[in-house]
Specification:
heterodimer; A: 292 residues; alpha+beta; 5-stranded mixed sheet; 10 strands; 42% helix; elongated; B: 594 residues; mainly alpha; two-stranded antiparallel ribbon
């Protein structure tokens, strides 16, 4: 009997743990409430089956365990029962899949009004690029990357000149309530842009640009984690997203440098270096320092 | 369709082929070392798999120590940790579970259960083991090369796997890939044997629809493996070329710590498709033999036929077929074309239907049975619970949009450990308690078995059930340490410590099991030829343990299916498959199932 009781307790205990658990999804900070709803639906349907099957098992163990004189029935098959069970399971599967695919179609179809933000990953840091006034990100190429052009932007592409560059270890800011299409680019290995409160995530794959979209709905500062093993520093690849109102966002954006500004500074610095090398005077050094 | 319950009044065709003379080993060397007897090969496979499995167990302790008590163990750094998870995962999935179910149970049970004297190609079968052993040794060697084994994660995703940001980039990854290639070569030699033996070497009267489900499970799993492993084989060869020859199958134009590499034009996602085209069927390569074995354990120990035998066979076949069209559900957030999500979510959830049917039929087998709560039965029951739990969380991860927040979190770790770690391993234990008496002639000790069962089952459930909730919280998998992270409460660290303690206890309980295996070899209770009163052919051999050639001078003739338990009118509660019917019409005919 003890076996039947323990098995019953496994089912009951699992349900109790689920209800009492202090470990649950972080409070939502994006438009993806539908994902949470789909999880809830899945819990209800599958939880019912889980408990029902285990309780049935426990009942059988309690009722039909071996004792002197007990004889099992001979019951090879029961096609009617099996088809009924198959049908019911199929209904359950449809009930899970329908909301799932419905929400997925929202996930893969980016709204037209979404603005782009580029996330660039490399071992083991995040940097970001925001299209300037033209709303278009300039072309980029891994082979163009050097010290003065860490994003590998094409200097001859007019679209890229006003792109706002947010260097590694700086925070990304986003305005609240505006849908964002996140374009993901990796310079070396696979990474995954993951902010638990946003629910959405996607891998960064070198050699291609991947995407997902979301709308931040709650102001605050959220941690970015890497969710795709990317080498020995994987767990340290962190960043921050700050979601704020339009005014604060606008003010922050004003302070950031565009690609054109960064290029100009780099050219000036190169000139400064040349000058410095030629006369080695204090002035050149001052000029170089002032640029940064 | 054959009448599944018929008791044997039908005509049995005479043997078409004369019996083939087996190779008779005479020296110790050919009898126990370079042996061609499938039963000895089975034990060689099992011992090797268990030995390397113990390495994986110790690695899991080390990684749990780090997760449960970060900052406490100075000797574990991030590179070590990633090497532990990689080798642990690879060993458990391939070198332990695949080798044990197919090389171990497949070799031991297929010839005995189908009524054959041995595998059809005994010499190739022997080679299969030795190549497998070589693969294991190459894997072990990677611990002793500069840089150690690869730490790329068991999925070995490029470009990371072959770049210097990953531990083991120098030699570890090369040895890993070579070892996989060897494993697949070795497996193919064994796998062809299992399939051909089931198809060609069944004894007279053993129709396909009279095969025990154990054989069905191993048979279909082997077919899956023969079709799926080649994808891993080519993936491994290509990555080896990328690493050693500088080809760019999987390598786009990229940087390595700021330096532009000479790669270009390859696709990292291509490798993921190849890997999971193998990787998903691999789940069923492990699960289908477990399905089959557990069906037989339930039937024997509940003294009742398996419920819905034909549905169970077709479910195995359907699951096997569907397992080839679901692979990209591992890649929902990989950056592949997002429209694939619709297709793979649909196929993935469809596979739940035959799988659920199997679960229903297992529990319905208990209904109005005569349930003996033996140790094999306990493990079978625990399998149903853990498999049900792990299958259900699979419905979360398979349903593409639910996978998005959960993928790459501890939820995934909990899910696949429950469904393809705990559940199949519980079946392995149940099967060992069940067939050990046939392999040795003695029963395993019951008290040690009870202890082993309860600690393993409840402990494993306590490890993995709460772990799902760390995933909901958003704790990513493959993190050496979570560090200061605002959204993760301190209580998560307590849960991690609890899981670690539970894992250590469950791990140490396995020592009792190993001791039981050794102790019972000499001191166990004499089992006799058929201690469980089972119907299948392996319990009807002339000798226990069965000698070379399995069945004495004459092969058995099969008159009925494998599930003639508690047949009305029979004087015992089981009728062996090879027992001739008691004269025409001399026995009461049970109601036919049609």
């Amino acid at each position: 009997m003890i076996v039947a009781v323990v098995i019953m307790l496994v089912a009951v205990g699992s349900v109790v743990f689920h209800v009492m658990s202090p470990w649950w999804s972080t409070p939502l900070a994006s438009n993806w409430g539908f994902i949470d709803t789909t999880i809830d639906i899945t819990f209800w349907i599958t939880g019912t089956v889980f408990v029902a099957v285990i309780l049935f098992m426990a009942f059988c163990l309690w009722r039909f365990h071996h004792k002197e004189g007990r004889k099992a029935i001979h019951d090879p098959e029961n096609p009617k029962l099996e088809w009924w069970l198959t049908g019911l399971t199929a209904v359950g599967v449809v009930a899970l899949l329908t909301p799932g695919l419905f929400v997925w179609s929202q996930y893969v179809n980016v709204p037209d009004e979404a603005t782009d933000v580029e996330v660039v990953g490399q071992q083991w840091m995040w940097s970001f690029r925001i299209p300037g006034a033209d709303g278009v990100l300039g072309k980029s190429e891994v082979s163009l990357i050097d010290f003065d052009n860490p994003f590998g932007l094409d200097p001859n592409d007019p679209d890229g000149q006003d792109d706002v560059l947010i260097d590694a270890f700086e925070d990304l800011h986003l305005p609240i309530g505006k849908p964002v299409r996140v374009l993901l680019r990796s310079l070396d290995v696979l990474h995954d842009f993951y902010v638990p409160q946003f629910r959405a995530k996607m891998d960064l794959v070198p050699g291609m640009v991947t995407f997902f979209w979301f709308t931040p709905t709650r102001p605050g500062t959220f941690e970015i984690l890497c969710a795709e093993l990317c080498g020995v520093g994987h767990h340290d690849m962190r960043g921050l997203v700050v979601v704020e109102n339009d005014d604060d966002y606008g003010a922050w954006l004003e302070e950031q440098l565009t690609f054109a500004q960064v290029q100009a500074a780099a050219r000036a610095r190169t000139d400064g270096d040349v000058k410095l090398a030629m006369d080695g005077d204090e002035q050149g050094l001052t000029r170089l320092t002032n640029l940064d | 369709m054959a009448d599944v319950t018929q008791t044997g009044d039908e005509f049995i065709a005479p043997a078409e082929v004369e019996e083939v003379e087996l190779y008779h080993a005479r020296s110790f060397w050919t009898k126990y070392i370079f042996c061609q007897d499938a039963k000895v090969i089975a034990i060689q496979y099992s011992l090797t798999a268990t030995a390397i499995g113990l390495v994986a167990l110790v690695l899991s302790w080390l990684m749990r120590l780090q997760l449960g008590f970060p900052d406490f163990f100075d000797f574990i750094d991030a590179a070590d940790y990633y090497q532990y998870i990689t080798v642990h995962g690879m060993v458990m999935v391939i070198y332990l579970l695949t080798a044990l179910f197919l090389g171990g149970f497949g070799n031991y049970l297929i010839p005995l259960m189908v009524g054959a004297r041995d595998m059809v190609f005994p010499y190739v079968n022997m080679l299969s083991y030795w190549v497998y052993l070589l693969a294991v040794l190459v894997l072990v060697a990677s611990f002793f090369v500069p840089g150690g084994p690869t730490g790329a994660g068991w999925t070995l995703y490029p470009p990371q796997a072959i770049l210097s940001g990953t531990p083991g980039q120098e030699a570890g990854i090369v040895l890993m890939l070579v070892s996989l290639i060897l494993f697949i070569i070795g497996f193919t030699m064994g796998g062809l044997n299992y399939v051909v033996t089931v198809l060609q070497a069944r004894t007279r009267g053993m129709t396909l629809m009279r095969l025990p489900l154990t054989v069905w499970g191993i048979f279909v799993a082997t077919i899956l493996a023969l079709l799926a492993f080649p994808a891993l084989f080519v993936g491994s060869v290509m990555m080896l070329f990328d690493r050693l020859l500088g080809t760019s199958f999987f390598m786009p134009s990229i940087l390595e710590f700021g330096e532009l590499l000479e790669y270009g034009g390859g696709s990292p996602i291509l490798f993921q498709h190849l890997f999971w085209f193998f990787g998903h069927p691999e789940v069923y390569i492990v699960a289908l033999p477990a399905f089959g074995i557990v069906s037989d354990l339930l039937s024997v120990h509940a003294r009742k036929n398996i419920f819905g035998y034909r549905m169970m066979v077709w479910a195995i076949v359907a699951i096997g077929g569907l397992s080839f069209v679901v692979w990209a559900h591992h890649m929902y957030v990989s950056g592949m074309n997002p429209y694939f999500g619709y297709f793979f979510a649909t196929t993935t959830l469809i596979i739940a239907v035959p799988t659920a049917l199997k679960v229903y039929n297992w529990v319905l087998t208990l209904w109005r049975g005569d349930i003996h709560l033996t140790i094999p039965m306990l493990f079978a029951l625990a399998f149903i619970i853990t498999f049900l739990n792990g299958g259900i969380t699979g419905l979360f991860l398979g349903n593409v949009v639910v996978d998005v927040p959960l993928s790459d979190t501890m939820f995934v770790v909990a899910h696949f450990h429950m469904v393809m770690g705990v559940a199949p391993i519980l079946v392995v234990f149940g099967a060992i308690y069940h067939w050990y008496p046939k392999m040795t002639g003695r029963l395993l000790n019951n008290a040690m078995g009870q202890f082993h069962f309860w600690v393993t089952f409840l402990g494993a459930y306590l490890i993995y059930f709460p772990m799902h909730y760390l995933g909901f919280l958003g704790v990513p998998r493959r993190y050496f340490e979570i560090g200061e992270t605002a959204f993760i409460p301190d209580s998560a660290a307590d849960l991690n410590a609890f899981i670690t303690v539970a894992a250590l206890i469950v791990g140490f309980a396995q020592i009792v099991f190993l001791f039981n295996l050794a102790w019972s070899l000499r001191r166990g209770k004499e089992a006799g030829p058929n201690p469980w009163n089972a119907t299948t052919l392996e319990w009807q051999t002339a000798e226990t343990p069965p000698g070379h050639g399995n069945f004495g001078p004459k092969l058995p003739i099969v008159y009925r299916w494998a599930y003639a338990y508690s047949v009305p009118g029979a004087d015992k509660d089981f009728i062996p498959q090879n027992e001739p019917p008691a004269g025409q019409g001399g026995r009461a005919q049970p109601a036919a199932a049609e």
